[in-house]
């Protein structure tokens, strides 16, 4: 049998094994995620409002409440639909949704006093045990609203943090989520005041000592300091890998976009990465870096990042900074947009806002309008007209992906140093490096070595000059 055929068969066998392993890993991830289900019918109605902050967040039947302050009625409805999708992702059943038109949220209860009565009636009628507000509530608003509706009240930020806590898998991801949750919880702690004070006893120790709430705050601050140190240590590994790629002049392409837009599906289609794909918000949190190459052999990396969402909690942006740096330090951003979403332009705006926050606003961007196979054609055409560097694709069927890949390859940073050299046959490593990191103009095999005319980076050009 021909040796080349044996090599091809061996390569095919390895590829088949890796593909089957990826499928098994995805199935295992889905099984793990679906293995823990909340039990319906367990009442979480408050006996005492002070219990609320010290009980684990457990959502079963929820009523959604939104305040419409700007934009059209359709915008307000889309925002509440997204909140419903977040609530369902967290494992709850949405019973009812209410929207109030106001110039600004009520400073005491988020919604007006009349609407609070309606919410209480909806809670009683549906048997709901949680109210979810579409916005970030102040500690005072949370406390007052809980007193009036008599059930647990949480806001959009707490809901997103809960989803992140469920979906975090890596050690770094879990630490980042825990830090974000503690940052959110710290100003919202409540206690009984001086009745929980401790007294040291003896001369100089009488009188109110450290209250229970002060103890809790101190412990949380200590824990947050420890988590920051751990995340900083874990960040070193990520920075080392990133600097190694930069040292070798390997371009980086970040796949960013709204949550559930299809980023992981696109990465899997391009590289066979085997990343978990699920029709749910924030299905993947941990960034995945995969190596791939252009049609002419240049190597570059693709990075799948955490999904963005409207009003992404500030605590999460801060905690996930080391992860989001994969976007801010990329050479190119492929911004994936869900073409089948009711308001894709709002998704684009929300993602760009977060990218600006993390310092990636100046990076070149390619828009990939995903799910073109199920999106309304007029919506896709409008996006293509509005965005100059946009391409319609379907990561599921593969439609348009080849065109997108060509656009990505042409947008990658080009090597700037021209070389014309004959590289000896015993320096095959340099020939390989030119193929991986450079742009070949011509290549010819001579008796004394490989004659190459190419564009390469400065470091590689210096190595070739020293031959």
UniProtKB/TrEMBL annotation:
GO terms for molecular function: GTP binding; metal ion binding; ribosome binding. It is found in: Cytoplasm. Residues 251-416 form the Hflx-type G domain. The keyword Ribonucleoprotein does not apply. It holds the Pfam family GTP-bdg_M. Keywords: Coiled coil, Cytoplasm, GTP-binding, Magnesium, Metal-binding, Nucleotide-binding. Its main location: cytoplasm. Residues 217-244 form a coiled coil. The keyword Nucleotide-binding applies. PANTHER family: GTP-BINDING PROTEIN 6-RELATED (PTHR10229:SF0), GTP-BINDING PROTEIN HFLX (PTHR10229). This is Unannotated protein. The lineage of its organism: unclassified sequences, metagenomes, ecological metagenomes.
